[in-house]
Amino acid sequence: GVHGKSSWSMPIAQPAQELDIGYGIADNNACTDGMTFKVIADGKTLFDSGRVMGDTLRFARIPLNNPKQLSFVTEPGQHNHCDHGNWVRPLITGWSQQVTASSSPR
Q1: Parallel, antiparallel or unpaired: strands 35-41 and 99-100
Q2: Per-residue pLDDT tens for 14-61?
Q3: 101 secondary structure, DSSP code
Q4: What is the pTM of this model?
Q5: What is the DSSP string of 4-57?
Q6: What residues have CB less than 8 Å from 91, skipping those under 6 apart?
Q7: Which residues contact 44 (CB under 8 A, 6 or more apart)?
């Protein structure tokens, strides 16, 4: 999981056509005022969740068009208290094999 303002990037070395990903705020955050989740490819925002409130898990399918780098960014609401977010099982398709965050291409 992540807290408040965060950013994580990964290089993409193979063709990547689509990203399936879950995102949401951890269910133990009674004091959150929401978070925004973004997926950025080569500096261009491909996905912006808008403000997501606590105890909500959502899923998105995002077209990629073969980026060189993907970034996963979260932004807190008006305060950074209790903003504990989760990216859930990112799955990139379009490679010769499917790749999740816990594996790497061969």
Answers
A1: unpaired
A2: 889 999 999 998 877 667 778 899 999 999 999 999 998 877 789 999
A3: T
A4: 0.82
A5: SSEEEEEE--S---EEEEEEEE-TT-TT---EEEEEEETTEEEEEEEEE-TT-E
A6: 19, 20, 21, 98, 99, 100
A7: none
